[in-house]
Amino acid sequence: MTRTPSSRLVAVLGSALVGLLSPLLLQPAQAAAPAYVALGDSYASGTGTRSYISDGTSCQRSAQAYPSLIAAARGYALNFRACSGATIPDVTNTQLSALTSATTYVTISVGGNDAGFASVLTECALPGWASNCNGRIDTAQAFVNSTLPAQLTTLYSSIRARSPYAKVVVVGYPRIFMGEDCNALTWFSPAEEARLNQMADLINTRTAAAASAAGFSFANPTNAFIGHAVCDNPEWINGLSNPISESYHPKAAGHAGGYTPTVSPLLTGAAVAVTAQVAADASASGAEQAALQSQYADADRSIEPEVVLAPDLTTTEVRRAARKAGIDLDRFIADSQRR
User: Fold this and answer.
1) How far is CA 99 from CA 69, 203, 286, in A?
2) Catalytic residue at 42?
3) pLDDT greater than 90 at residue 28
């Protein structure tokens, strides 16, 4: 059949249009940012950094915590669900819903609150004649040895079921103490500090075993924080602080210099260096993250923050203990105020 001039023109224009569009059609679609969900407690949320996003909760999520720093450095789409005070049931009930089959990366830090570590520190901060520090540690250790592993196994199974293709890194706890107590109004003895550090090691040991059984990686921050405990110089962990919620949690320097280089190689395949630009990018993400987390605010408000309490030497129990130990409590308090 003979083509008319108009049909030839249409054919030519069509060929030209295909030529222009072909390179675009052959290009892959722009990949979405990998989805990273950060789960866990105050050591993951960033309590201790003294700077928190305004998401309408008491979760104390910080843009200077390691999840934000890693996400900013790698360009990950972060859903920052970790919350101060979270226990294993809290993670299960309020945080796991953020996981999907499209989740690429997950970090999880939990177990210290379940073992009652804040209440252990509260007890051990009292003078030895007024506390049952060893008894509290014994009770916590029994829980970690007998109950915690099974709870972690169940939690890790739930994470894998929801995000079957994700790279999951379980994150441990640093040793808090270095053998001396330089803080006013606390009375940790060297022996008590040693036992409390052993408690952190025990939680890490049991958590690492459960993580390995689940096929997850375990990031142990112990070595990174050696030389940076409470009363060290430089100190990466707060001692007894004001506000009290900051106490015995890593500072911003601990997240940048301790946690981030410990977690990032296992999660991303390469260590993240926290440069000024990375820190600035993480801070800039705060408003967006606050808006994202506000949708979970009602659920997050069900989580009770676990706070170490400052020693109170005026209680009836302490006065009774002082009399039993033959301590002149008024003089003891006066001497303590001069420390």
Assistant:
1) 20, 25, 21
2) yes
3) no
* CB count in 10 Å sphere of residue 109: 28
* DSSP symbols for 153-174: HHHHHHHHHH-TT-EEEEE---
Cα angle 215, 220, 225 (rounded to 5 degrees) comes to 170
Would you say the C-alpha torsion 235, 129, 191, 170 has a positive or negative sign?
negative
Q: What is the pLDDT of residue 34?
A: 95
Q: List, for residues 66-88, the tens digit of each pLDDT value.
A: 999 999 999 999 999 999 999 99
Q: What's the rounded Cα separation, in Å, for the pair 277 and 186?
A: 38
Q: Is residue 22 part of a domain?
A: no
- Tens digits of residue pLDDT in 250-271: 999 999 999 999 999 999 999 9
Quote the domain boundaries for residue 84. Answer: 32-313
Is the pTM above the cut of 0.85? yes
Q: Which of 42, 109, 163, 247 is catalytic?
A: 42
> Cβ contacts of residue 206 below 8 Å, gap of 6+?
111, 144, 145, 148, 149, 152
- What's the Cα-to-Cα distance from 219 to each of 23, 82, 126, 144, 171, rounded to whole Å? 44, 16, 32, 18, 5
CATH number of domain containing 292: 3.40.50.1110
pLDDT of residue 32: 80
Could you tell me the end-to-end alpha-carbon distance of the chain, in angstroms, rounded to an integer? 106
The long-range contacts involving 273-279, CB below 8 angstroms and separated by at least 24 positions, are 273/73, 274/69, 274/73, 278/69, 278/72, 278/73, 279/64, 279/69, 279/72
Q: Is 255 a catalytic residue?
A: no
Residue 202 within a domain = yes
Amino acid sitting at position 320: R
247, 249, 255, 285: the catalytic one is 249
- The count of structural domains within the chain is 1
Burial code of 93-104, b = ≥16 C-beta within 10 A, e = fewer? ebbbebbeeebb
Q: For position 31, what pLDDT does the model report?
A: 59
Considering the domain boundaries, does residue 339 fall inside one? Answer: no
Whether 168 maps to a domain, the answer reads yes
